[in-house]
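hey so u asked for the seq, here:
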Amino acid sequence: MKRIFEISVLCAAALLVAACGGNSKKAKQAAAQQAQLDSAALAEKEANIEKQLENMSAEPIFDIVTTLGTIRVKLYSNTPMHRDNFAKLALGGFYDGILFHRVINGFMIQGGDPLTKDEGNAPMFGTGGPGYNVPAEILPENRHKLGALAAARRGDAANPKRESSGSQFYIVQNERNCAQLDGQYTVYGETIEGFEVIDAIAQVETDYRDCPVTPVKIVTVKLAE
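ran it, structure tokens below
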């Protein structure tokens, strides 16, 4: 009887192992199929973005939709690298859910850091990006006027070429106080609608880091209809 019991146990174990092996194989196949689907979806998304970029006007207009309203901006044709980079990030959904992490009333509002999607990254807000910089396109005719859209960057000591952050940008709220930045940062667009939204964001309560106490989120950035 004991012998029969042992054989039964061994047979059950063997069946279990076989079943597990089969399940493991199926899981691997499912994972491989999902990876293929994900890869195909990504390739399709990238192709769609490239098509939109090709059909985009020389000075495209984008809506920066925030939790406090929409800021409509026009990108400049004379800063093509910054224009195309901003457009590609926007069309790919990079800015969706990102916060305005630095707000100084009477100066400017700044956003574009992907680290701000996670509150746990708060001590590092302002240091994130897509992993690359954009060469400077600093032109005398592109000034820090009211509503100007410009690229944030690291200081001259660490960044003598004045390369721009790959994704972080700021919008001028006070032209007089931002005039000192002319010739030092790449201005690559301007606000054409939503100046009251810039003011609303600039006037929110902030902490010692100039970060809004109540988060101001970018819902999405999209081509204007």
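The helical segments are 2-55, 80-91, 175-178, 195-202. The longest strand covers residues 69-75.
lmk if thats what u needed
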